[in-house]
Amino acid sequence: MRVTSLIQFQSLERNEGTLKQLMEQNAELETDVERVRQRDELLAKVFRGSHMCQTLCHLLFFISVMLSSSFLSFSSGFMILVI
To answer: Which segments in the chain show pLDDT lower than 50?
Structure first.
């Protein structure tokens, strides 16, 4: 009977150790998940900002070309840039 109790106690200790390790790993994973979420939010903001910046740059370039060059318009609706 005493040997069975000792084996059960050792098993309980191993299970507690495993549980502690799993809880630590879970805490690390939760931290990693939060970091990934924050990174994704920042990348989304940067992408939206860069997309808006690209659109604005294209618009400004088009306006500067229009102001510095003359356009010939054809009846078909196409435009040719004459520099």
So the answer is: 71-83
